Amino acid sequence: MDITSKMLTEADSVEQLELLMQSLERELANGNGRAGFLLANAYGLDNSFFKHELGAPLKPDFEKALHFFKLSFPALCKEAELGNGEAMHLVGIYYQGGTPPVARDSAQHMVWSHRAFEAGYIPAANDLYSYYSNKNSEVYDQEKAAYYLKILTDTGTRFVV
């Protein structure tokens, strides 16, 4: 089953949420890096994305989050090497924030964002738009920013600046 963050936020009970989390752990054990990335974020210190009408069923747990971030990265890299655009994008996110086990590296974030976009993962255009539209960025380029913004709007992809 491909568990999404939406499924986690819409769980009807704490028990259902726990079953979804166990499924994610099994998926990670089978090499699904995205599953581990979801787990890490669910346990992260700012897991507000996963709070809903159940309240905050998952207490932030930095050690668990760090554990899952570290376990996920090699699996995501392997998936990225196989051409998975979403995995490429998630690898880029690791570099964007300096998420363990990697150090913050804007150049690597850009490389992986480009790879993800070229692999057909349209949400990566958001990162590219953000970089090229930032006047303080060393890669500021209005023409490229407009290109990625048009793709985002034409495809109805939600974007964040």
Topology of this protein?
Layout (H helix, E strand, L loop, with lengths): L4 H5 L4 H16 L3 H11 L18 H20 L3 H13 L8 H13 L5 H10 L8 H14 L6
Helix pairs in contact: 2-3, 3-4, 4-5, 5-6, 6-7, 7-8
Apparent shape: globular
Rg measurement, Å:
16 Å
- The total strand number stands at 0
Q: How much of the sequence is in beta strands?
A: under 5%
**Count of alpha/pi helices:** 8
Helix content: 55-70%
Overall structural class, as computed from helix and strand content, comes to mainly alpha
Unreliable spans are none
SSE order: HHHHHHHH
Give the N-to-C terminal Cα separation. Answer: 32 Å
Q: What multimeric state do the chains show?
A: single chain
Average pLDDT across residues? 88
Largest sheet: none
Organism: Pedosphaera parvula (strain Ellin514)
Keywords: Coiled coil
Coiled coil: 7-34
Protein name: Sel1 domain protein repeat-containing protein
Describe the structure.
With 161 residues, the protein is mostly helical. The protein has a domain at 1-73. Helices cover 63% and strands 0% of the residues. The protein contains eight helices and no strands. It has helices at 5-9, 14-29, 33-43, 62-81, 85-97, 106-118, 124-133, 142-155. Helix 4 (62-81) packs across helix 5 (85-97). The longest helix is centred in the middle third of the chain and has 20 residues, at 62-81. It is globular and about 50 Å long. The model has no long low-confidence stretch (mean pLDDT 88).
